[in-house]
Structures are given as structure tokens and as C-alpha cells.
Design brief:
Length: 103
């Protein structure tokens, strides 16, 4: 069992290394074409949105809307209205704690 686990870890490390090395080896120091650069720029916000949505709406196996979802929504509105991140986090914590206290 222990040997299988280390073999799995080594295999994952080798695959990760191969994936990360494929770009620099393929391009050889050249710049990416503009078409690819425009797509890569859009990937970070899309991944961040996916992480936030899954963390805010996931409850184990099912989608769940609760106090934490309301907190994330309140923080999103605060940031959208021009607040900085720290006050938005305080708003999220306060809304989440308040709703959990009421439940």
C-alpha cells in the first residue's frame, strides 16, 4: 500500500513536470502568438470565478445556498461598489455570522 502511494505521487509529479515543460520546450523562448495570449489573459478571471462559485455554492455533493453564499454576495456587491478588499471581507464575515446566528 505504501509503495503504491509513492508510485502514484511520483507518477503525478512526472506528468506535472511534463505538462509544465511542454510549453517552454515547444516555444523555445519565442513569444506566444497574439491569439493565444488573448485567451490566456482571460483564463485567470474565469478560474477565479469558478473557484468562488464552487466554494460559495457547494455543500459536499449538492449545490447549497446558505449564509456563506449571502456573505460572498455581500462582499461582491461591496467590491463592485468600489470598496477595498479588507472592508469587503469584514462585510462578508458580518453577514455570514449574522445569518448563522439567526438560523
Amino acid at each position: 500500500m505504501k509503495g503504491e502511494l509513492w508510485a502514484l505521487i511520483a507518477g503525478c509529479a512526472a506528468v506535472t513536470f511534463a505538462i509544465k515543460a511542454a510549453g517552454p520546450v515547444t516555444l523555445g523562448g519565442r513569444d506566444l502568438p497574439p491569439r493565444f495570449s488573448s485567451v490566456i489573459v482571460l483564463m485567470a478571471p474565469a478560474l477565479l470565478a469558478a473557484f468562488v462559485v464552487t466554494q460559495a455554492l457547494a455543500d459536499g455533493e449538492h449545490l447549497h445556498v446558505g449564509a456563506d453564499t449571502a456573505g460572498v454576495a455581500a462582499a461582491g456587491i461591496a467590491v463592485w461598489r468600489g470598496w477595498s478588499v479588507l472592508p469587503a471581507i469584514v462585510v462578508a464575515v458580518a453577514v455570514t455570522a449574522g445569518l448563522r446566528a439567526l438560523a
